[in-house]
Design a protein that fits this description.
Layout lengths: L37 H15 L5 H13 L6 H22 L1
Length: 99
Amino acid sequence: MKIESLGKPVAPTHVTEAHPRPSATPKANTGELVQLSPLASTLQKAETALAQTPAVDGKRIEEIKQAIRDGNFRIDANRIADGLIADVRQMLESQAGRA
């Protein structure tokens, strides 16, 4: 597919904010105490743990790739189904605990 120019120059758009953002400079300490809820504290800990956990296990990925190349990779549908059911149960239990 070929994209052709119509010959019309495109003028840059300028956007102005109706409400300016507050300055990012830190405010003076007013002595006010801020306390996080238990849920916020838990979320903060989970965020920290997630940040320290690699997104993927590169070594495991290479092992699986090699097993596929060698024709040795087996899929255990029962194990996958059991894992999915366990995850759903855990999710439902955590939601019931919040209600």
